[in-house]
Amino acid sequence: MPQKSLEHQHVEFLLSVAGAEHVSITTADREQHARDQSFHQAHLPTAVVWPASAQEISAILQYANQHRIPVTPWGAGSSLEGNPIPVHGGIVLDLLRLDKILAVRPDDFQVDVQAGVRYQDMNAQLARDGLFFAPDPGANASIGGMIANNAAGTRTPRYGATKDNVLRLEVVLADGEIIRTGSLAAKSASGYDLVHLFVGSEGTLGVVTEATLRLAPLPEQFSAAVASFETVTAATRAVSGIMGSGMVPAALEFLNTAVIRELNGVDEFSLPERPTLLMEFHSATAAALQEELKLVNVICQGEGCVAFEAGLGREERDRLWRARHQTYETLVRANPGVSFLIVDLAAPVSQFPALVAACQSALAKQKMKTYLVGHAGDGNLHPLIPYQPEDEASFGLATAVHAEMVQAALELGGTVTAEHGVGIGKRQYMRQEHGQALSVMRAIKRTLDPNYILNPGKIFE
Ligand SMILES: Cc1cc2nc3c(=O)[nH]c(=O)nc-3n(C[C@H](O)[C@H](O)[C@H](O)COP(=O)(O)OP(=O)(O)OC[C@H]3O[C@@H](n4cnc5c(N)ncnc54)[C@H](O)[C@@H]3O)c2cc1C
């Protein structure tokens, strides 16, 4: 097990590589890098370093590997499963200074970017070329953090998750070696797919310093639609209907009645207080968009939808998406003094109704508020489990409800995490989900990081 604290000579080494302004052992800086946005316990690193290049990272990793010092990469710290918490102390490598967009190639729909760039800032710049990077986790995450967590969000049905939009990576390995993997070609069958080994590896296999990302053209035409249903089952059946029709919504979000009620209260919406689907469609022409919306209407009516509103203009569409992105904050404000365990699960789309039912029942059995939201278009549900902070019994109950939900997802052929990653919170379920394949994952970890210095304590128990 790597050592937890750094000796004086180790700090001196870091100073010699990154310079005095870019190394900190102050309590304030260490505290800022001790917790992410989850409930997981904070752990202080001994030092925080802000390197400026792959070469500096290489020198630090080579040294850390020699001296068995844990190193945890850090993007924006917006994770929800404890992914960047330095549980074994050591060095946090904050990638903030790797903040350059290196090249945009509009004809190839590609951008070369350093890992510390925030994706919302990058998209603001790419909009000048009529392009955008589609994965959208809501929080202003870094590209490196999105790659490491394989982030996804609302636009996955049409554009895919981060893994579907990464072509090439520059990675610094645990021993300091710098490799480039992948190519600029749209597809490749050349050897093992190392790009997708690093995507989703949560900083446990290497530090990503640069990436070539696949971009999408900003849609010419778009429209939003809201459909309300009598029951959760009807709403979730409509999800299967829409996805099965061959249409590809840009976003297809599910919000249950309890969530709509809170949004109505705080944001002065007047949506019917029913299970609701919030959808967005992108198209090259207005005519194609009209046809799609007609078909969506027919499918929703077929499932007994009680209200359907489509063709919403940009202002209303932006307001709805703002509300969707701020759902969590809205629920927190509506429940002062209550904390929430944000759960991330997914099942096949056909099983989404069963997953919703199981999670709703797990909450209702404990007389908890039943807040359920999800990226329904890809079977991804985010139940929110309320608990009283500082109350062990209440937290224990929330954890038990969480475990029941996880079992339901696995029994339905799903996964314990669709987009937040394993981090600390999902480690205990890895054997159950992956069986013997987990041993192969461990073997890969041993090969690439034999001294377990990279983000130790994550993914594996
Ligand atoms: C309000 C809110 C809503 C969210 N909604 C969504 C959502 O809808 N979908 C979704 O997918 N996520 C969502 N998230 C989670 C989070 O934003 C994503 O997981 C995001 O990808 C984390 O990026 P980050 O830059 O903050 O990374 P961090 O949290 O800093 O780090 C994430 C992981 O990546 C590693 N890492 C960071 N940079 C590198 C690098 N350069 N090389 C190697 N490893 C690295 C870290 O060690 C850590 O394991 C949400 C978060 C919040 C707070």
Description:
This protein is an alpha+beta fold. The protein has four domains: 8-96, Uridine Diphospho-n-acetylenolpyruvylglucosamine Reductase, domain 2, CATH 3.30.43.10; 98-217, Uridine Diphospho-n-acetylenolpyruvylglucosamine Reductase, domain 3 (2-Layer Sandwich); 219-329, 2-Layer Sandwich (Alpha-Beta Plaits); 335-423, 2-Layer Sandwich (Alpha-Beta Plaits), CATH 3.30.70.2740. Helices cover 36% and strands 21% of the residues. The chain is built from 16 helices and 19 strands. It has helices at residues 8-18, 27-32, 54-67, 119-126, 143-149, 156-159, 194-198, 232-244, 257-267, 286-302, 314-325, 327-334, 352-365, 392-411, 430-434, 437-448; strands at residues 23-24, 47-49, 71-74, 91-94, 101-105, 110-114, 131-132, 166-172, 178-182, 207-214, 216-217, 221-229, 251-255, 276-283, 305-312, 339-342, 345-346, 371-375, 380-387. The strands form four sheets. Strands 12, 13, 14, 15, 16, 17, 18 and 19 form an eight-stranded antiparallel sheet that branches. The protein has a five-stranded antiparallel sheet with strand order 5-6-10-8-9. Strand 5 and strand 6 form a beta hairpin. The longest helix has 20 residues, at 392-411. The two termini are 13 Å apart. The model has no long low-confidence stretch (mean pLDDT 94). The structure holds flavin-adenine dinucleotide.
Bound molecules: flavin-adenine dinucleotide
Percent of residues in helices comes to 25-40%
Overall 3D shape: globular
The percentage of residues in β strands lies in 15-25%
CATH architecture label name of the largest domain: 2-Layer Sandwich
Summarize the biggest pleated sheet.
8 strands, antiparallel
Counting structural domains, the number is 4
Q: What is the CATH topology of the largest domain?
A: Uridine Diphospho-n-acetylenolpyruvylglucosamine Reductase, domain 3
What gap, in angstroms, lies between the N and C termini?
13 Å
Instruction: Please count the helical segments.
Output: 16
From the alpha carbons, calculate the radius of gyration and give it in angstroms.
22 Å
Low-confidence stretches: none
Q: Give the total of beta strands.
A: 19
What class do helices, strands and sheet pairing give? alpha+beta
Which CATH top level class of the largest domain fits? Alpha Beta
Mean pLDDT value: 94
